[in-house]
Task: structure prediction
Amino acid sequence: MTTIDLNCDLGEGAGHDAELIPLITSANIACGVHAGDHQTMIESIELAASAGVSIGAHPGLNDRLGMGRRDVPLTPAAAADLIAVQVGELSQLAQLRGAKVTHVKPHGALYHRAARDYSVADSIAKAVRSINPALVLFGLAGGELLRAGRARGLRVASEVFADRTYQPDGSLTPRGRDDALITDEADAVGQILRIVQEGVVRATDGSDLQIAADTVCLHGDGAQALAFAWRLRAELATAGIAVKSFTEG
Result:
């Protein structure tokens, strides 16, 4: 049976983490830098653990004003430090509560920089491996972070998006463009079903791209996040696609 992982960012103040948690299989927990704090990290760990959802670290840039989404100057060494501190702290908090961190997914501008800049991607992969070589590295399908992770001997998960459009080179359309987001729920579901079933996505120029999918990102901060998550789960089930944590496999 075909399976797919559903991941969602938690601890960022969206307000409905508890409602989303039964619908996902992997949680990416903000580590108190771009969003959240010590208490939200603890609450998110406990929420995910109680639901049997895989716990991941979601480290971001030190940019709370921009919520880690602004592309600020970043050296590979600085990227490694961000990963080491944030993943290390979340791992310790999880261990104290009898849980464990299973994966790492960078946030926002750090995620996108790692997708295109191999030097930053490699520094992140090296830092993740130094913390725990069993950690799975989540990154943009076809991006440099996955290539760097494999080169460092890490297991990687190829991530795709339901509500974002793709450029002909496989990158996500920049959010500043009018065609960056897929706002029609049926279109977003259709994109994911085609990616999972056929390994193909339609780019903004009308071309079809080959794409690998291990995990689907569900954005939890939209007004219709819960409704979309319910619909996607139902549509996946109807298509005979099982939902399962990637890190369990």
Remarks:
- The two ends are 13 Å apart (CA to CA).
- The longest strand covers residues 3-10.
